[in-house]
Amino acid sequence: MRAWNVVGKYPVYDDSGNITHIEITIASTTGGYATYTERVVGNHMDKAEVDLVELCREAHFKSEYANRAMAESVQKIDEMETIVKAAKEFMAESAEKFKAMQTAQLELVERLSKAETERNDRFKAIEEKFQILNGSMMEMLTEIYANTQESEVTKDENLENTDNVDGSDNSTANSETEKE
């Protein structure tokens, strides 16, 4: 990199006598001869030579490469516009898909509600059938129990009426019994 030194600094005054700009001339001390002069905004008369060289080089860079920087910035702006356009398209597509998802979710909630109502109705019908079945079973069991109770009573009565004096199991009258 070249080394530079200040070979001149010239103030530029306004109508009221204030310094508005400084023209700084720098020359290279290494790497071949080069010199240029740049106008820098502000009063920099009291600054050190190193600071003046930097101010002059920066002003030169801005003036010489402004067109290139402008072209690059326009290119960057075009790239950003492309990105923004893609982002807007993505957001619009996302919003559309989100709306479709919300609609599908509402339809699903509605279907689930109908299914739950139908399930509850079916369970209620099954419960009613079980109550009828339970009532029928209870009637049948009550009738069977009552019949069982009646037959036990009948058997007991038959046993009491069948006592024989002679001790035989035969219920017919036995006329050929031993006489004493």
SSE blueprint and pairings:
Layout: E1 4-13, E2 19-28, E3 35-41, H1 49-64, H2 66-161
Antiparallel strand pairs: 1-2, 2-3
In brief:
The chain has 180 residues and is an alpha+beta fold.
**What is the N-to-C order of secondary-structure elements (H for helix, E for strand)?**
EEEHH
- Helical percentage: 55-70%
What's the number of helices? 2
Strand content: 15-25%
Instruction: Count the beta strands.
Output: 3
State the end-to-end distance: 163 Å
Largest sheet: 3 strands, antiparallel
- What value does the Rg take, in angstroms? 59 Å
**What general form does the structure show?**
rod-shaped
**Are there runs of 5+ residues with pLDDT below 50, and where?**
none
Oligomeric state as shown? single chain
Mean pLDDT: 84
Q: Which structural category fits the helices and strands?
A: alpha+beta
Q: Spatial order of the strands in the main sheet?
A: 1-2-3
Explain this structure.
The chain is of the alpha+beta class. It is built from two helices and three strands; from the N terminus they run E-E-E-H-H. The protein has a three-stranded antiparallel β-sheet with strand order 1-2-3, covered by helices on one side. It is rod-shaped, with a radius of gyration of 59 Å. The mean pLDDT is 84.
